[in-house]
Design a protein that fits this description.
alpha+beta; 6-stranded mixed β-sheet; 29 strands; 18% helix
Length: 517
């Protein structure tokens, strides 16, 4: 679908321009929108002494992980002049009657001046935090770390003189150990949230703000005085100390496979554990029944190396054959989605590191696989999961649109008339923006006439739990789903469960086994 050009105004603090704002501007320029800018001078955020000290230490300890750094300083003049220069709409000039479609507030503070509202057709758009409102973006991400919230909610709100509207919203991973990592993620995520919302208006000239939910700003009762920062500092030291102790006591992220007859017993203490040798882990299991035999396809990864794909036969008594490597590349492989198509066995492994979605065919099932084609190219996508529904093929997967995103919190869908044909991106992509329910975690299955998608819950950590999501609407224009069941680690041995698949006889789940050193 072609996009029509919008007039977009940008409100900057001239001496406070950062890398995330530069990337947003460059992407808007690439989409050929007509650009204008305002220069403003905002007050400096009032920070307590301990807040400033904590922020400094946090950046020193965790700042190396902010790569690239969303808050790296950028040059204001370069932003407005490079490639596509765009003019200034002078603040307060009554003779300037220019009106933009959208006015983006890229400063640290909310803007509510009447003169700005008068210049924008669709209001002033700002970053907002529905669960933890803050007086300034300088404090974003701190309250969530302090409260150990399961997620961090980020919204894009359109403000008008009469009403406010929530244009976009995502629930992202909360870095409970580091507010500076939260802030880095917030600003890179906001680039994509702004772009997604702008594209909705660019695609449809009939879209209006009243088609979006009304947004009510909560009272900003968050303060970061010296007393609160002292409490937060003590709690953060305790959390970091616990993590260090657990690292010393346990082998972290030791992924194992667990099997159970028919999957009726959700107490993982009583499942059969398939334990890999200590120099590797096993994850992303897929169960396939063929000619009376059951096979587990899975990712096998030697510590410190890239993952490859292996298979083993699962016997009736719960034992298994020795694993055999079926596919190994010079890039990471995982999530071997094996399926039947035209009476032949095919596989779509995860090949995000190669920026492809690849299709393989079994030359000799289950050991030998040959490359068929790239279904998609120049795309960083994880855990592609195929569904044939209403005469179309649908690929569900998490996709990184920006180089700074992650693969946990946004689900996208592509569809095609034939598996070997051309794939089209769903117009509502990403269809899910939620760290608890976005990433696929196994095959999509049907029960009592309804389709269900298994999703990862990575709110507390990567691969913490699973959500079973009923697919309510799936067509070329719309998508809707809802959670009907959650599967969480429920025993001392297992601290995360990650992928769920089954046949008529067996159910398999992978999990992080707490193994002492």
């Amino acid at each position: 679908m072609d996009l029509h050009k919008l007039k977009i105004g940008l409100i900057f603090e001239k001496n406070n321009v950062f890398a995330w704002q530069t990337e947003l501007v460059q992407k808007l320029q690439a989409e050929n929108h007509e650009m204008y800018y305002f220069e403003v001078v905002s007050p400096k955020p009032s920070k307590s002494l301990l807040f400033s000290a904590y922020q400094f230490l946090d950046k020193k300890v965790f700042g190396f992980k902010c790569q690239p750094d969303a808050l790296a300083k950028s040059n204001f003049e370069i932003i407005i002049k490079k490639n596509h220069p765009f003019p200034s709409l002078k603040r307060g000039e009554s003779e300037n009657k220019e009106k933009v479609d959208i006015l983006l507030n890229l400063t640290n503070f909310p803007i509510s001046e009447k003169s700005f509202f008068e210049k924008s057709k669709y209001g002033i758009w700002e970053i907002a935090f529905p669960e933890n409102p803050v007086p300034s973006l300088a404090f974003a991400g701190f309250e969530e770390a302090y409260r150990d919230k399961d997620y961090l909610g980020i919204g894009i709100v359109a403000k008008t003189e009469k009403q406010n509207y929530l244009l976009n919203y995502a629930q992202c991973f909360n870095q409970i150990l580091s507010p500076c990592l939260n802030q880095n993620m917030i600003f890179w995520q906001s680039v994509e949230l702004f772009l997604e919302a702008i594209r909705k208006f660019s695609k449809s000239q009939n879209l209006s703000l009243d088609q979006f939910p009304i947004y009510q700003f909560l009272e900003q009762n968050t303060t970061f005085d010296n007393f609160k920062m002292l409490k937060m500092s003590i709690l953060q030291v305790i959390k970091i100390s616990k993590k260090i102790i657990n690292t010393i006591r346990f082998v972290q992220d030791y992924w194992v496979l667990m099997i159970n007859k028919e999957g009726k017993n959700k107490n993982f203490e009583n499942w059969i554990y398939l334990m890999p040798p200590t120099d590797r882990f096993w994850a992303d299991p897929f169960l396939i029944e063929n000619e009376g035999k059951n096979y587990i396809f899975f990712e096998e990864c030697f510590l410190g190396q890239k993952g490859h794909l292996s298979v083993m036969e699962l016997y009736e008594n719960g034992t298994h054959s020795e694993p055999e490597i079926i596919l190994k590349k010079d890039y990471h492989l995982s999530y071997p989605f094996v399926f039947e198509y035209q009476n032949e066995w095919y596989m779509i492994p995860e090949t995000a590191e190669n920026q492809t979605v690849e299709l393989y065919k079994a030359a000799e099932f289950p050991q030998k696989w040959v490359f068929v084609k790239n279904l998609l190219e120049n795309i960083k996508a994880c855990d592609a999961t195929l569904l044939y529904h209403e005469n179309k093929y649908w690929l569900f997967m998490t996709v990184i649109e920006a180089q700074h995103g992650d693969l946990w919190d946004k689900l996208s869908i592509f569809y095609a008339d034939d598996l070997m044909g051309e794939w089209t991106s769903h117009p509502e992509n990403p269809v899910v923006k939620d760290i608890k329910t976005a990433r696929c975690a196994g095959k999509i299955f049907q029960k009592n006439g309804k389709w269900y998608r298994t999703a990862q819950n990575s709110s507390k950590r990567y691969g913490y739990g699973l959500a079973i999501r009923e697919i309510i609407t799936l067509n070329e224009q719309q998508y809707e789903e809802k959670t009907v069941e959650n599967i969480l680690p429920d025993c001392e041995k297992i601290e995360a469960v990650h992928t769920y698949n089954f046949t008529e006889k067996w159910t398999v789940i992978d999990g992080v086994y707490r193994k002492k050193k």
